[in-house]
Design brief:
The chain contains 10 helices and no strands. The chain is mostly helical and 283 residues long. It has a single domain (2-277), classed as MetI-like fold (Orthogonal Bundle), CATH 1.10.3720. Helix 1 (2-31) crosses helix 3, helix 5 packs across helix 6 and helix 9 (235-244) runs antiparallel to helix 10. The chain is elongated.
Length: 283
């Protein structure tokens, strides 16, 4: 039993450190993009179109990961695209957590008509296909950073609400909640001071996973040209362009695809690592 717990702890440590290293590197690279990017991500030079990465013959000095069909530097575009992806992940994840977590906490603790209304709203919301719903929202709101964030929040708040509702119900049946009620504390105060701290680990795990989902949603929307301006670099738009020229310039597709994969995987594994770390049995 002890060996099993030690194994799970080591696995949780790897799931925390390895994704954390990649995400930390990505954040630093995105913040320093104006300084470390070798070129302007929007600068075009048709004479340098589809130049290969530095290790292949025919590479152009200074273009480390090659260029796309318009002669734009792939590395610079990757760095600037990371800034947008991380902004969307952070803001959309935080707002989704705030909305869904609050509604789930209220429904799970207060029960009665608040739970009935919120639960029915969750059921109705989840009847819509999320990808089609997001495309519809962007079509109505128009492309832009705020439109993407609003679409993600409107779609994914149910994920938080369902899980936090169940967790709040479980916590509200504990003895410490009954003790707080006996001494005459108000229900709202009990929810904030007693229930919320005990569901906070679950909220942190869900937030981490949601940030990865937000990155995917932004990439999907930019892939179909429903993200920000088509001139601004995004991983999805780079993948869309690279898909067309895969046989002539594989690097235009492969590098943003790898970066997107590693980022989403890191958020997912970080969430799993936090889940193991906060496991009350292991603690």
């Amino acid at each position: 039993m002890a060996d099993g717990r030690a194994l799970i702890k080591r696995r949780a440590g790897l799931r925390l450190w390895l994704p954390g290293l990649w995400l930390g590197f990505l954040v630093l690279a995105a913040l320093a993009a104006p300084v470390i990017a070798p070129h302007d991500p929007l600068e075009q030079d048709l004479f340098l179109g589809r130049m290969p990465p530095f290790w292949q013959s025919g590479a152009e000095p200074g273009y480390w990961l090659g260029t796309d069909s318009l002669g734009r530097d792939v590395l610079s575009r990757l760095l600037y695209a990371a800034r947008l992806a991380l902004v969307v992940a952070l803001i959309a994840g935080a707002l989704t957590c705030l909305l869904g977590g609050s509604l789930g906490l209220i429904a799970g603790y207060y029960r009665g008509w608040p739970d009935l209304v919120i639960s029915r709203l969750i059921d109705i919301w989840m009847a819509f296909p999320p990808v089609l719903f997001s495309i519809l929202l962007i079509a109505v709101l128009g492309p832009g950073l705020m439109s993407i964030i609003i679409a993600i929040v409107v779609i994914d708040w149910t994920r938080f609400a369902r899980v936090i509702r169940a967790e709040a119900m479980s916590q509200s049946a504990m003895d410490y909640v009954a003790s707080a009620q006996v001494v005459g504390r108000r229900r709202f105060g009990i929810m904030l001071a007693e229930i919320l701290p005990n569901v906070l680990p679950t909220i942190v795990v869900l937030l981490t996973l949601e940030m990865g989902i937000a990155v995917i949603v932004e990439a999907i929307l930019s892939f179909v040209n429903l993200s920000i301006s088509t001139d601004d670099p995004t991983w999805g738009s780079m993948i869309s362009e690279g898909r067309i020229s895969i046989h002539q310039a594989w690097w235009v597709l492969v590098f943003p695809l790898i970066t997107l994969f590693l980022t989403v995987l890191s958020f997912s594994q970080l969430g799993e690592g936090l889940k193991d770390y906060f496991d009350p049995v292991l603690r």
